[in-house]
Amino acid sequence: MRSGLIVVPDARALARRAAERIVELTRAAVAGRGQCAVALAGGSTPLATYEVLGTSALAAAVPWGAIAWYFGDERAVPPDHPESNYLPVREALFASRPEALDRVHRMPADAADLDLAARAYGERLPDPLDLILLGLGEDGHTASLFPGSPALGERSARVVVVTGPKPPNPRLSVTPPVIETAREILVLVSGAGKAQALARALEGPLDPTAVPAQLARSGTWIVDRDAARLLRSMS
Ligand code: 6PG
User: Fold this and answer.
1) What does DSSP say about strands 36-40 and 131-134: parallel, antiparallel, or unpaired?
2) From CA 88, how far away is CA 196, in angstroms rounded?
3) Which atom of ligand 1 is nearest to the CA of 75?
């Protein structure tokens, strides 16, 4: 089995395992470098992990005061919009830690000038990130890097404006170099609906233009059994 692949029984175990891993990684970064920059993933899968991290006994082990939180992508909606990545993350991870909100750098994808906002965020984003959390879409996307997107060819800007395949279409997303240079990459994947995309991401022919999540192949993938069911390495 691939060394960076951790298969757990279900979504609940995934949340627990991922939260433990985030605690280990953030503590190691703070022990080694005094601080830690984390980019959070949007989507629904990581929300249970954020909740465990923010509200379980594990929360006491998180070095909250030394972590700066960023985002890997955001939809062009205000921060209190239900389609934003910010709102559910805020509720799941920071509801019981309002003081940590001072250290949260949301992606301002609701700005009037999105190109300017992308440039400014890209300049603020620590290089390298200590940890980037990512999800996987059924079409193989990760962050808001969709198959065939011109953003996949971006080598200098760290954040760009992209167009998603469904509303809200305009988004900001980190670019491939941000993923490739992150010190740690953690990808969370849950559910049978992701099985095909996961097999393509980890075991398909290498072509990140078609399967952008392959940019994270070298990372640690924590996936549940339903998502893992088509992996050759599982048979
Ligand atoms: C987003 C994400 C995106 C997400 C995947 C998986 O803004 O939508 O950052 O890359 O991680 O689409 O989403 P689910 O966890 O909801 O399946």
Assistant:
1) parallel
2) 27
3) 7
- Write the DSSP string, 43-86: SSTTHHHHHHHHHSGGGGGS-GGGEEEEESEEESS-TTSTT-SH
| Cα separation, 74 vs 87, whole angstroms | 11
pTM (2 d.p.): 0.97
Residue 19 has pLDDT above 90, yes or no: yes
Ligand 1 atom nearest residue 145's Cα: 10
* Ligand 1 proximity of 143 Cβ (cutoff 6 Å): yes
Question: Of all protein residues, whose CA lies closest to atom 3 belonging to ligand 1?
Answer: 143
14 pLDDT higher than 60: yes
Classify the C-alpha dihedral 224-29-44-97 as positive or negative.
positive
For 31, the enclosing helix (H) or strand (E) is: helix 11-33
